[in-house]
Design brief:
Layout: H1 8-59, H2 64-83, H3 98-113, H4 117-125, H5 127-136, E1 138-143, E2 148-150, E3 159-164, E4 166-172, E5 178-184, E6 188-190, E7 205-208, E8 212-217, H6 219-226, H7 230-249, E9 258-260, H8 261-270, H9 276-293
Antiparallel strand pairs: 1-8, 2-7, 3-6, 3-8, 4-5, 4-7, 6-9
């Protein structure tokens, strides 16, 4: 059956439908073409970057083994950046207030640092301290496969938490027997004594088994920030007193740079418990503060 408009209203409707269809179809085709052009441009840019990298490596006579490691790691980093845009590339983040930025960094960092009972407790005792730590004392560090984070005899500079990947730790005891440990995300932490001692010397070798992402805690900034808040300072003081007493009681051959959370978390958590004298002193200090406020 032949269908056609019979009056002015039907003709106007038919014309409007055709125009709308043409405009809509053109918009869809234009969007697809634009997306394909953008994707092609990104692919060409990435290909050019790798071409320049290979050219640079060849020009400087870099060995095939190292060249392959560099290219593989560069590819891994680019893929990671596609999945997780770096904060420095998000322009609107620069508009945030200091407190908002601190809260944002805290939300990102603390799920990883909370594997350590002290930081989990700090989140409850002094949230502002956690915000300051996340914004001023913690930063990210990347490792390629087989990269070395530290070697025996080096002076420790930071505490580390594994965010992604896996590392292997190796140390030798006084009998020259080798001890190896795997270091995984969500369970372990690295070089904690650097927070509480003036000098901590690494006891073993830590190497990345896969591409790794670490969160790094600066001990100087950690001490400065924790001392700003009375509650955080009291908690840290109680913890470090028990921590140092315990670590001094451990035999040299049993010491390690790695703290396996599933093994030491209950003991570490007990370091934050006040003994009877400390509890009385804390109550006395609280009473003095309350009287002063009145």
């Amino acid at each position: 059956m032949h269908v056609q408009p019979h009056n002015m209203s039907e003709r106007m409707f038919a014309i409007g439908t055709v125009v709308f269809a043409l405009v809509g179809f053109s918009y869809v085709v234009g969007s697809i073409s634009g997306s394909l052009a953008q994707l092609r441009g990104m692919t060409e840019n990435r290909a050019r970057q790798f071409w320049e990298l290979r050219r640079h490596l060849r020009k400087n006579h870099v060995s095939i083994t190292l060249s392959a490691r560099i290219q593989k790691y560069a590819e891994h980093v680019l893929e990671s950046q596609e999945d997780n845009v770096p904060a420095k590339d998000v322009k609107l983040l620069s508009l945030l207030s200091e407190q908002l930025r601190s809260e944002l960094e805290c939300e990102i960092c603390m799920p990883h640092f909370s594997v350590h009972p002290l930081f989990a407790r700090l989140c409850v005792v002094s949230r502002v301290t956690i915000h300051r730590l996340a914004n001023n004392a913690i930063y990210n560090k990347l490792l390629a496969r087989t990269d070395t984070l530290f070697i025996p005899g080096e002076t420790a500079t930071h505490m580390y938490i594994v965010v992604a990947g896996r590392l292997v730790y190796s140390r030798f005891d006084s009998k020259n027997d080798e001890h190896k440990e795997l270091v995984d995300k969500g369970e372990d932490w690295i070089s904690e004594p650097v927070l509480w001692t003036s000098t901590w010397v690494h006891l073993g070798l830590l190497t990345a088994l896969t591409e790794c992402a670490l969160m790094v805690l600066d001990p100087v900034q950690f001490g400065r920030i924790v001392n700003l808040n009375p509650d955080a300072n009291m908690l840290a003081t109680t913890y470090v007193k028990n921590f140092i007493a315990w670590i001094n009681s451990v035999e040299r051959d049993s010491l390690s740079d790695i703290w396996q959370g599933e093994n030491v978390s209950p003991r570490v958590a007990s370091f934050m418990e006040l003994d009877e004298n400390q509890f009385r002193n804390a109550k006395s200090l609280a009473a003095k503060l309350m009287n002063w406020q009145v």
